[in-house]
Amino acid sequence: MTTLTTTPDGTAVRRSAPPAPPAAAGRATRQGGTVLAVPALVWYLVFMVGPMIAIFVIAAFHWPGMLQPVSFAGLGNVRTVFADPVFWDATRNTAVQLAVALPVMIVCAYMLGYYVAQRPPGHKVIRYLLFIPGLISTPAKAMVFYAALSPDGLANGALQGMGLGSLTDAWLASPSTALGCLIALDVWGGIGFTAVLFAARLGSVPDELGEAAQLDGAGHWRTMWAVHFPVIRDYVGVVTMLQFLWTLFGSAQHVLLLTQGGPGTSSTTLSFLVYQKAFIAADLGYSQTVGVVLFLAGLVGLLAIRRVFRQTY
Does the pLDDT at position 123 exceed 50? Predict the structure, then answer.
C-alpha cells in the first residue's frame, strides 16, 4: 500500500506504507477460521450434543409413549432398571459379546492385514474381497446367516453330510448358541474392513524395518508382532475404539433381525434393550436410562482402550 506525503518545499512524494504487524495478520486469520467453523459447530451442537443431553433429560421422566403425559421420576427409573433381571442379562450378554468379538476381530484383522501388506500374489483382488462384507446391507447379511443357521440350513446340512448329525442344532433358537451366532456375525461383518484398514497403515511402514528384522533372524511372526505392531500401536488403538463402539451400539440391528433378543433373554444386549423398551414396550424413561448406562459404558471403554494402546516410548 502506498501513500502520498508532502515535503516542506511542496513536492508530493509517493511512499510505501509499513506492512501490517504479524500479530494482527495472525488474529485476522484466526477470526476467519472461526467464522468458517461456525456452521460445523452449530451442526455438532444441534445433532450431537443436543441428543446426548436429551438422553439424560428423558431418563429422569416417566414417559409411557411419545404422545402420553409425562411426569417427573427423579431416580425412579434408575431403581427400576437396576432391579430388573432383564437389564442384568443384557449387561452380561453385552460384556460377553465385547470380550469375545473385539479381541478375535482385532487380532485376526491385524494378521490378515499384515499378510495383505506383504503384497502376496493377487493382493489387490484380496483387498476387494475383504471389502465385500462391508458392502452388504445388514438385512442381507442377516438373511445369509439365517439361511446358514436355520434348522434346515447349510450348517446342519453340512454336519449331516459329514455324518455328524448328532451335532445339529437350532442355532438361532437355542439359548446356548444364539448369542454365539450373533458374535460370529459381528466378527464376519467387521474383520474384512478392519483388515483393509490395517493393511493400508502397514503399507506406510518402511520396508527397511522388516528387512532388518529378518536379517537378524526374525521370522514373519516375530516381525509382525515385535516390529510392525509397536510402530502402528496408536492406529490399532483407534481402530479398536471404532470397532468397540460399533459392537456396543450397533448390535441391536442384528438381534432385531435374527433372534429378537431370545430365546428368553439369552441374546438380548443393552443396545437392543434400548430399542425394545422405547419402541415395543413404549417406556421411554426406562429406555433412556439404559441409554445413559450404555453411554457411560462406551465412555469408560474408550478411555480404557486408549490407555492400553497408548505409546510407551
Answer: yes
Taking CB atoms within 8 Å and a gap of at least 24, the contacts of 105-109 are: 105/186, 105/187, 105/190, 105/191, 105/194, 105/243, 106/194, 106/236, 106/239, 106/240, 106/243, 108/187, 108/191, 108/195, 109/190, 109/191, 109/192, 109/194, 109/195, 109/197, 109/198, 109/239
Angstrom CA distances, 133 to 94, 139, 144, 146, 246, stand at 22, 12, 11, 15, 15
**Which residues touch 249 (CB under 8 Å, ≥6 apart)?**
271, 294, 298
Residue 144: pLDDT above 70?
yes
- The answer to whether 89 and 178 are in contact (CB under 8 A) is no
> Does residue 22 carry a pLDDT above 80?
no
Q: Please list the residues that pair with 142 across neighbouring strands.
A: none
Other Cβ atoms closer than 10 A to 159: 15
What is the rounded distance in angstroms from the CA atom of residue 93 to the CA atom of residue 111? 27
The average confidence (pLDDT) of the chain is: 86
Helices (H), the chain: 22-44, 50-58, 76-82, 85-117, 123-135, 138-149, 154-161, 178-202, 207-215, 220-222, 229-231, 233-258, 270-275, 284-308
The per-residue b/e assignment along 92-125, b for 16 or more CB within 10 angstroms, e otherwise, is ebbeebbebbbeebbeebbebbbbbbbeeeeeee
Q: Stretch 37-58: mean pLDDT, rounded?
A: 87
Are 180 and 97 in contact by the 8 Å Cβ rule? The answer is: no
pLDDT greater at residue 305 or residue 127: 305
Grid coordinates standing for 59? 431418563
Q: Phi and psi for 311 in degrees, rounded to 5?
A: -70, 140
Q: Determine the Cα–Cα distance for residues 295 and 51; give it in Å rounded to an integer.
A: 12
Cell of 129: 474381497
pLDDT for 24 beyond 60: no
- The model carries a pTM of 0.84
